[in-house]
Amino acid sequence: MQLLLNSPDPVSKNGLCDFSDTGLPAGSVCFFAAYAPNGILPPFTQFYLKNILDCGFILHLVLSGDTPADKETIFFCKKNNIHFWQRPNGGMDFGAWRFLFQKNVAVHAPYVLLANDSVFGPFSPLATVLVHARAYTFPAWGLVASRLVTPHLQSWFIGLSQKTLQTAPVQRVFSLPFEHMSRNEIIWHGELGLSIALQEAGIPLQAAWSDLHAPLARFLPTNPMHTHWYSLAASGQVPFIKRELLRNNSFAIPNLHQWPDVIPPTSNFNPQWIADSLTQHDPRPTPAATTAKGRMLYRLISTTDTLLWKTRRHTRHSAH
Fold first, then answer.
1. Residue among 187, 204, 146, 163 at smallest CA distance from 288
2. Are 89 and 223 in a shared domain?
3. Are residue 220 and residue 200 in the same domain, yes or no?
4. What is the DSSP string of 35-82?
5. Could you read off the pLDDT of 162-174 as tens digits, one per residue?
6. Final residue in a domain of this structure, among 210, 231, 250
7. Fewer beta carbons below 10 Å: N end or C end of the chain?
8. What is d(CA 274, CA 246) in angstroms, rounded to the nearest whole number?
């Protein structure tokens, strides 16, 4: 394992600006897992990292892959005071987060954000989203909570208080050898297992968007980042799109070509970053094959969600 650009004091205030008005406790840390087989951090991931810094987090970036980081990536981390770590690929995001927990870089952090590079965005300032949602006031909080398989917070963006991290069920999750697990094992023991551990510790699952109490989701649970991708991003409630949705579209959702519509004209996110990424080969794992019934369900819900959102938006604009 190779360590680069890590300062002697890994938990220290970022120092770029004053974050006293955000509500984020001083000394809070973000663990960001990125997969870079070519050692290059793409511009949309750099943009995401800058948004995390703007929230006030001390940022630890773990770049997983066999190729050393390129000079531009190293310069970006130095310029933005990002603590940069490089490790062999293994264990996906939970393996990278466990790697940092083992380094004890957040042992004194009052709040820890776990995030990864599996999304495009944010299309609106992340700090504003988190402040409006009062994210920092909850012991466990995510951007999306879903009933699919079992009630859980989607692991690509989860915030946990230090007290929550120290509970025995959560500690057991992050003691697991994710680097020796398959992708499916990591999903079961990591993403789903973490939320089960939170509930076992008596900690509720809070999120910016949730279908945990939605009647339809009780009978027809889906991945909302697929079925509700348009309204989540266009509303600004969850201003991201999953990369694998646009890359693979496993459920053959028909309206994905409308993705530029959800990026506001005032956004600092450059849509060309997505367009360029989709023309490049992405060696990430392909999800399991879907069924005809599943594809029909996802297409129906996604199309309805888009139409309902556009109708509501048109009605609001007409009223003004």
1. 187
2. no
3. no
4. E-TTS---HHHHHHHHHHHHHT-EEEEEEESSSPPPHHHHHHHHHTT-
5. 999 999 999 999 9
6. 210
7. C
8. 9
